[in-house]
């Protein structure tokens, strides 16, 4: 039995089918990614796992405890970092953590130790005295994360934890997740709009779009789903201003062009696309070609192919 089992979950709000037969499993000690564009149903699914929202049909268990029947046992295992910052703005970092620790039933020396550890792992030990309202968005997010792990949860759920976060805080959050996962064997469910984050942190992932499964499995498996799509990298000596447009419109099978100075990445349908036509265009334009390579798709590009959307939609 897997640590988290999600089977055939359906959820609707009125006539809107928000989750449509969603099933996946998360193994104990795994860092698992849940990816999807805005409104895909990610937060709804997290609310269902944590027993905050009811579902219409299907079944869910965490460590063998059924949701919602055994929700108290499930919640004991969970540390949740919600999308919205949930802190008391007038209080300082330590007082906030004392409050949350109290909710988990921690007190005395144990609470003090956990607060110190929490502040340490999110890199806030130097900022314990000032009111939280003076913190940057990234620092507040990190404090929110420290609050979620005071009771040493076996299962850490992070709902888009890097939104509105500066690069330094983002790196700290990454290091923290890897630390919890490797040091304590914490199982992690990580949701994000940023495919590169999931690519770095999670070996397996689930892609959700309009409440439905689009892809599920290892990164390699997701990329395989779109194996019919190919990417070409072109570099030229001096590209004319309209070269990108000509690549998009003049060559059959070109689905997307991403350019940077004299470099161009083309995502193409390999059946329609033909390098001969590319060479003809380059000759016609009198351009000197310096590089022409076939490339592997990134996870982000695979996602685009699967859903027709970018994650930042
Ligand atoms: N309480 C609610 N009542 C009605 N509809 C809701 C409710 N909560 C969410 N929805 C709808 O359910 C769908 C999924 O929303 P959800 O917040 O789960 O998506 P998401 O993938 O987390 O999106 P985002 O990345 O924007 O947070 C959306 O269409 C949303 O409008």
UniProtKB/TrEMBL annotation:
GO terms for MF: ATP binding; ATP hydrolysis activity
Keyword ATP-binding on entry: yes
Superkingdom, natural source: Bacteria
Keyword line: ATP-binding, Nucleotide-binding
Keyword Oxidoreductase: no
UniProt domain ABC transporter: residue ranges: 4-235
InterPro entries in the record: AAA+_ATPase, ABC_transporter-like_ATP-bd, ABC_transporter-like_CS, P-loop_NTPase
Entry-linked PANTHER family: LINEARMYCIN RESISTANCE ATP-BINDING PROTEIN LNRL
Protein name: ABC transporter ATP-binding protein
């Amino acid at each position: 039995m897997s640590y988290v089992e999600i089977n055939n979950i359906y959820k609707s709000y009125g006539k809107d089918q928000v989750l449509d037969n969603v099933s996946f499993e998360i193994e104990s000690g795994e860092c698992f990614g849940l990816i999807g564009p805005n409104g895909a149903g990610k937060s709804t699914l997290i609310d269902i796992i944590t027993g905050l929202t009811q579902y219409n049909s299907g079944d869910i268990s965490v460590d063998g405890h059924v949701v919602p029947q055994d929700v108290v046992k499930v919640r004991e295992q969970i540390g949740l970092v919600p999308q919205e910052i949930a802190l008391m703005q007038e209080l300082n970092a330590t007082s906030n953590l004392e409050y949350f620790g109290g909710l988990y039933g921690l007190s005395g020396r144990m609470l003090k130790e956990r607060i110190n550890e929490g502040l340490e792992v999110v890199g806030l030990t130097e900022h314990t005295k000032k009111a939280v309202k003076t913190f940057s968005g990234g620092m507040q997010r990190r404090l929110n994360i420290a609050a979620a792990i005071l009771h040493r949860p076996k299962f850490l759920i992070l709902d888009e934890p890097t939104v509105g976060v500066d690069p330094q805080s983002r790196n700290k959050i990454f290091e923290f997740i890897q630390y919890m996962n490797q040091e304590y064997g914490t199982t992690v469910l990580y949701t994000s709009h940023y495919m590169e984050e999931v690519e770095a942190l999670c070996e397996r992932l689930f892609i959700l779009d309009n409440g439905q499964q689009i892809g599920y499995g290892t990164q390699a498996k997701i990329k395989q789903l779109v194996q019919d799509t190919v990417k070409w990298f072109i570099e030229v000596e001096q590209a004319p201003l309209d070269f990108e447009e000509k690549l998009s419109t003049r060559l059959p099978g070109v689905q997307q062009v991403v350019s940077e100075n004299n470099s161009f990445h083309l995502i193409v349908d390999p059946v329609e696309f033909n390098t001969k036509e590319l060479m003809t265009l380059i000759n016609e334009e009198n351009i000197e070609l310096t590089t022409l390579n076939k490339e592997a798709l990134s996870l982000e590009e695979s996602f685009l192919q699967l859903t027709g959307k970018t994650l930042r939609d």
